Amino acid sequence: MCRWLAYIGEPLRPSTIVLDATHSIVAQSLDSPLGAETVNGDGFGFGWYASGAAATAEPALFHSIEPAWNDQNLRELTRAIESPLFFTHVRAAAGPPIQQTNCHPFRYENWMFMHNGAISGWRDLKRDLTLAIDPGLYPNVLGTTDSEVLFHLALTLGLQDDPIAAVGRAIRMVETVGHEHDVRFPWQGTVAVSDGSTLWAFRYSSQGRTRSLFHSTDIPTLREMYPDQARLAAFGDHARVVVSEPLNDLPGVFVEVPESTAVVLDADGYRHESFLGA
């Protein structure tokens, strides 16, 4: 399907992990050992919150239908800015066309959302799920992906008040509609969502065999584990990364997120919560 990365912490130049990491998200767009597809070259997106901006500020987005490894603008942009919270997504199209409006992340006011996975039987489920979106939100659906519909379903079902509950309700709706259409395992995926101050990440599939997802160990612990790793100096004590697959091969740097789990990352650190009845 796709690969994605989300960062939260002290303001960071995104190129540090988007481009320069040993197995960066751009490297994953060319070679993704843990992905359903090895190559993710059907466009990409980069979204970020400005350093020093209010928590309610709208994030900025950059989308392109070029492969991430071939886009000079991505290199220029991620080396020029600093951000305390940013998303990057590289796409392997599963059916919807390659166009900018189908590139993640998606945005609504101060919220960002991205997804790796798919709604099975999407062609048959699309009408019912799209019509369940609040009429006031429907005009904001600009592309043709199942991911964007899920985002607006979650908004319809209370994302801005309780992200974990709302994403859960949206996925349960996908499963209910899917089962009505005789789709055995309707939902597959990992999701990231943020309001600009907190990052929520989800790993869940109807079959219990979800795409891979990892988060980094806290930086003070990593400095104790690897005192000679000079690259750790680039990160503040509160820096956290959630990513489809690890950015390097150092043992203990990345922790796999368990099945049916929501990860919450904020100023207090991170915690795991059971998601959808695990």
Automatic annotation (TrEMBL):
Gene3D superfamilies registered for this protein in UniProt: Glutamine Phosphoribosylpyrophosphate, subunit 1, domain 1 (3.60.20.10)
Keyword Transferase: yes
GO molecular function annotations of the record: transferase activity
Pfam families (alphabetical): GATase_4
CDD domains attached to this UniProt entry: YafJ (cd01908)
The Glutamine amidotransferase type-2 domain, residue ranges: 2-278
Keywords, in A-Z order: Glutamine amidotransferase, Transferase
The protein's name in its UniProt record: Glutamine amidotransferase
Organism: Cryobacterium arcticum
